[in-house]
Amino acid sequence: MIDVNEINLDAIRSTITFLSENEEYGDDWSEEIATLDKVMDFCLEHGHRDE
Questions:
Q1: Is 30:23 a contact under the CB 8 Å cutoff?
Q2: Cα separation of 30 and 33, whole Å?
Q3: Residue 39, Cα to own-chain centre: how many angstroms?
Q4: Cβ distance 43 to 4 under 8 Å?
Q5: By CB neighbour count within 10 A (0-12 exposed, 13-18 middle, 19+ buried), where does 5 fall?
Q6: pTM of the model
Q7: What was the pLDDT predicted at 51?
């Protein structure tokens, strides 16, 4: 079983922001962003202490 508290949510948030900003230049990162959003939701639903 994975320890969701070992996952760095700040890094995921930063990556989402970076990819979102790059979409302005014509890159389509919507699938990747959706996947990262699902990872964050999973972590928070399974008890991640978002500190």
A1: yes
A2: 5
A3: 6
A4: yes
A5: middle
A6: 0.81
A7: 64
